[in-house]
Amino acid sequence: MKIKLAEEVKHLTSEQLEELYERYISGEKNQELMEEFGIDAHPNKLVSLFPPVMHESFECAYCSLPLFYKRKSKTGASYSMEYFCLECDHKEGHHYNRPLVCKCSPCSEKRAEAARAKLAADLEKISQEYDLEKKVMLKYSDLSFRHKCYLLSLFLMQSDSDLNRIKPLNNSGSAVELSPSDNFDNEIILKLHRDGAIAVDARSPLSAFDPSDDFKSFFYRDVFWVVNVSLDGSRRLSLEELFKLVYVELRDGIQLEWEEELKELVFKLAEEEVAKYLSICLEQLQLPDAPKKTNEVIKEILNEFSVSEIYYFIKKATENAHIFYAKGKAESRKHAVNTIPSKVLYLATRASNEGWDVYKYNRIYGTERSQLNIVLFDLVIGGGDDIAFYKSPEALWSNDLHKVFDDSKPSEEAVSNTSCIGCGSTDVTIKTDKNTLTLLCTQCGEQQQFYASKN
Prior knowledge:
alpha+beta, 5-stranded antiparallel beta sheet, 15 helices, about 45% helix, elongated
């Protein structure tokens, strides 16, 4: 194998080159050596002009030819050692105690093949771990009111109908948010997943799964979801089928068994909307998070004031904290925000005791109605005009919603005398819808319907 010499040293014999290198390594000046041997180049380039040295035992893994290495500089430190093939440019060795990454075609293809094999193995692990056939389906009859509101909200903003799945929360093209906050979003997804209403789609991007535990964990806001609900326990409903069932049920009127969950959701949404406005105010003023007891204060004053009115208390309390810090009276920003819960409570108490006509704020950018808010108040309750923003949840419940349930409840006597005509069991469920009363026996499944007179 003939080594190609640099143009500047082609006039020298092998013996002369070796002599030149020995004298170079011994410390003679480059300029003097180059003048003596007739080399026309910059003195600093001399070491690069020497031909490489053939290693006595290393061979190329692909060509089976000897590997070569460059000659060492008389001043350079030996942090690296590189061996290369003159035929195919394959390289071996190390740089700073790290294996050298060869970029020759065979090595590049080998790495690509290893990557393809690993990807296939990883995808197979994910496919096995999240196989829908292994998941127990949740019966539609076991879906709670909250489940249905959450599902419908997701369907309306995150549906991928073509692939029969729900898009990740971090991949939303919707103009509205699922709920007022990321924390509540996560709570919604976690509950639906934990209760078995939705399951992880194994077709989600690889990056949505955690490789540190063989993909048994995943990132809730990054995975796609599929519905995991069945009518009869044998066939999983499609996203479109479940959407229609839930939409029609929620649209067709409030049911008695929803009372407790509906009330909880009305208050929960109000709390989250106030908390979101608080976080926006703190961010604008470059203040840290308020202490947790602020949430308890918010819950308490929502019994009397609306979200719109509490915006006023929040605005005043956060501005007061900012001034407290800016004037140097607070030890730190954290010290300043610790004044917020007491200030909010103080303002709300004064407003209540002194009968203030509290200024009602409007929504601002970042606090627009969420999809869950729209589903609950526009579809289920049917109030419209953002009633839950301008009326306290307690007043909304006591004056409006609670009456719906009171008017729909049958008398105690009627309930005690109600029994199934099929089996005689008193274990029946009663539902009312406009002029219809339906009795469903939980023992034998017999269904009776009674209609109000038109006279």
